[in-house]
UniProtKB/TrEMBL annotation:
One of its GO terms (molecular function) is hydrolase activity, hydrolyzing O-glycosyl compounds. Keywords: Hydrolase, Signal. It comes from Solitalea longa. One of its GO terms (biological process) is carbohydrate metabolic process. Residues 107-211, 412-531 form the Sialate O-acetylesterase domain. The keyword S-adenosyl-L-methionine does not apply. Residues 1-20 form the signal peptide. PANTHER family: SIALATE O-ACETYLESTERASE. This is Sialate O-acetylesterase. It holds the Pfam family SASA.
Length: 647
């Protein structure tokens, strides 16, 4: 009898555990935006054969879960409006009900790419004012958390929540996507939803499905190789745990604070000395990854006047904590602001000796304080005390950071975890800013970038969804040579060629980059130019000039090459100069010279005394070119070349 009772209990346990709860993926939630004017897909899981009812805006739609418990419905097309409530329930089971509130019907855009799309409003130009003024209840963001997976996932991580845009939420939003959405919301007077799925430093292959990558032989080899190396699920799961430990050590001090390294009275007399500004790269002692503590004692007798002080660190590495006389002043996490300035309360400032302490993560060769020396100081507004010069430093105080595998670079792993779970959420289109991670192989990018675009369109099953993207900005040191090898120029060329893919548009930003920063801060202009493309290409406002001049056709006339342009707007101009700059020309010897370029209507005539029989012209062909061809609407011409010579 006892055995029968135990058997019956086990049976009940199996039955109860097999009962599936109603589930809807996290791409749905309070404050979400649903795409107007299309049939709206809603999906999830329940018990096999359960009837699921979706109620929204007066529409009641039912579905029956299949043998795997999967169900989906399609709500009818509806115009913009709201707010609404959605209720999803299992028919006949009042305990299985999910309700979402404050839902708007509007336009939803997926914003994806690497760090320049991920870059927060808090890190961009005029961040304080932008955040303060970000009161836009009809702009909503869903930020997809970083995640990787060997196989396609059904959901994004739990931290994902739809948020209305206001001064308490906007700081973490993509600056580009925010500028884009703000412009569209104002022009179209419709709620804009942004699903932000981004990860800095990642290549395009990571965002593309394995099935699509396998259709290209050269990519299939890479996928197959990676699968062989990463197929062990246990290694992958163990690495995920190690990654958590890694970032816990980066962000949180345990040993250092316990030893009171941040306190003024801590004895650092036996620590080595380093002259600041300096970085780990400049030490000449090989690469170091881990946590560094830095200490600086300064005499503030002439500044200790009962006033608060400003402490200027210029541009340190992005993950650090700052202490002043033992008190934490800031904890900086991935803030790539151009300058880092902090207020030191007057009550912390003492006459005589004061101690400044930094706990800093040295990652990927970084760590330390950057030049120039006169940007490191304390000030009361009138007088300054330099923070340059001798600092003591020590490594090894905190636990060493473990070795991890960076799966975010692996083909398809970001698609699996950060794109697949949001498919087929109804959307208007995509905006994309990426390419820096692929500059070493621009020729392959000519294949991989259009491949990803087509992959996403196929997955969403909404036809040729608009795909608007950003061409790489100008970056690195400017050269006076007419031609140098430039991987950045080659990648821009590959991006321009992607315009051959239907229903695409490109925002050229060759004029708003920064020579010393791969993350230019003027993200407002980037978002604006993407929005102009959307206005023209997506919202049917053909009168909106959305592109700078684009080379259209080429003819050789004697000793000159004549280039006809489209997208000239009201006309071609040489911006801020009497003459055009940035053109180079070559003959059959493939030796390029600086060229004279003259505007003649929608044609530019290019020539050079050294090149009697020209065959090729390039424009803006450098990492950071000095070029000034615009249309009168103020949009720059995209760099181009008329040849197909291999570099």
């Amino acid at each position: 009898m006892r055995n029968k009772i135990l058997l019956f209990c086990c049976f009940l346990l199996v039955v109860c555990s097999a009962k599936a709860q109603l589930w809807v993926p996290r791409v749905f939630g309070d404050n979400m935006v649903l795409q107007r004017n299309i049939n709206i897909p809603i999906w999830g899981k329940a018990d096999p054969n359960a009837k699921v009812l979706v109620e929204f805006a007066g529409n009641n739609t039912q579905a029956v879960a299949n043998e795997n418990g999967e169900w989906n419905v399609s709500l009818p097309s509806m115009p913009a409006g709201g707010p609404y409530i959605m209720q999803v329930s299992v028919v006949g089971d009042s305990k299985q009900t999910i309700k979402f509130s404050n839902i708007m019907l509007g336009d939803v855009w997926v914003a994806s790419g690497q760090s320049n799309m991920e870059m927060k409003i808090s890190e961009s130009k005029d961040a304080v004012a932008e955040i303060k003024n970000a009161i836009h209840p009809t702009i909503r963001f869903l930020i997809v958390p970083h995640d990787v997976s060997l196989h396609p996932k059904s959901d994004i991580l739990p931290e994902a929540k739809w948020k209305q845009c206001d001064s308490s939420t906007a700081a973490d939003f993509s600056a580009v996507a925010y500028s884009f959405s703000r412009q569209l919301q104002q022009k179209e007077n419709v709620t804009i939803g942004i699903i932000q799925s981004t990860w800095g430093g990642t290549p395009v292959e990571a965002w593309t499905s394995e099935e699509m990558l396998m259709t290209v032989p050269e990519l299939a080899k890479i996928v197959t190789k990676n699968n062989k190396e990463n197929i062990d699920e246990s290694i992958f799961k163990k690495n995920e745990e190690v990654v958590k430990v890694y970032w816990d050590i980066i962000y949180n001090s345990y040993n250092g604070l316990k030893k009171k390294v941040n306190e003024p009275g801590f004895n650092d007399s036996k620590w080595p000395v380093l002259n600041m500004p300096a970085t780990v790269r400049s030490w000449g002692k090989g690469p170091y990854e881990g946590i560094l503590w830095f200490r600086k004692t300064v005499d503030l007798t002439k500044l200790a006047k009962g006033k608060s002080l400003n402490l200027h660190l210029h541009k340190p590495e992005m993950n650090y904590s700052l202490y002043f006389n033992g008190q934490e002043i800031c904890k900086n996490v991935w803030n790539a602001a151009k300058t880092h300035t902090y207020t030191i309360p007057a009550k912390l400032v003492k006459k005589g000796k004061n101690v400044v302490v930094l706990r800093m993560a040295a990652l990927w060769g970084g760590g330390g304080l950057n030049d120039p020396a006169d940007s490191l100081y304390l000030s009361d507004g009138a007088d300054k005390v330099s923070l340059a010069g001798e600092w003591t430093y020590m490594k090894g105080i905190e636990t060493g950071i473990p070795k991890t595998i960076s799966y975010q670079y692996t083909p398809s792993y970001l698609y699996n975890a950060m794109i697949k779970p949001i498919v087929p959420y109804g959307i208007k289109g995509f905006i994309w800013y990426q390419g820096e991670a692929n500059v070493a192989n621009a020729a392959q990018y000519e294949t991989t970038f259009p491949l990803m675009i087509n992959d996403w369109r196929i997955r969403w099953k909404q036809g040729h969804l608009p795909f608007l993207y950003v061409q790489l900005a100008n970056y690195m040191k400017r050269t006076t040579n007419p031609l140098v090898k430039s991987e950045w120029a080659e990648l821009r060329d590959a991006q321009a060629k992607t315009l051959g893919t239907p229903n695409t548009a490109m925002a050229t930003i060759i004029d708003i980059g920064e020579a010393d920063d791969i993350h230019p801060k003027n993200k407002q202009e980037v978002g604006l130019r993407l929005a102009l493309a959307a206005e023209n290409k997506v919202y049917g406002k053909k009168e909106v000039v959305y592109s700078g001049p684009v080379a259209d056709s080429v003819t050789i006339e004697g000793n000159a090459i004549c280039i006809k342009f489209r997208e000239i707007g009201s006309g071609l101009i040489a911006k801020n100069a009497a003459d055009l700059k940035g053109f180079i020309i070559a003959g059959n010897d493939r030796k390029f010279y600086w060229a004279k370029a003259v505007i003649k209507g929608d044609i530019i005539e290019v020539s050079c005394e050294q090149v009697i029989a020209p065959v090729a012209v390039r424009y803006g062909w450098a990492d950071n070119p000095d070029c000034n061809l615009y249309n009168k609407e103020g949009l720059p011409a995209s760099p181009f070349r008329t040849d197909n010579w291999k570099e």
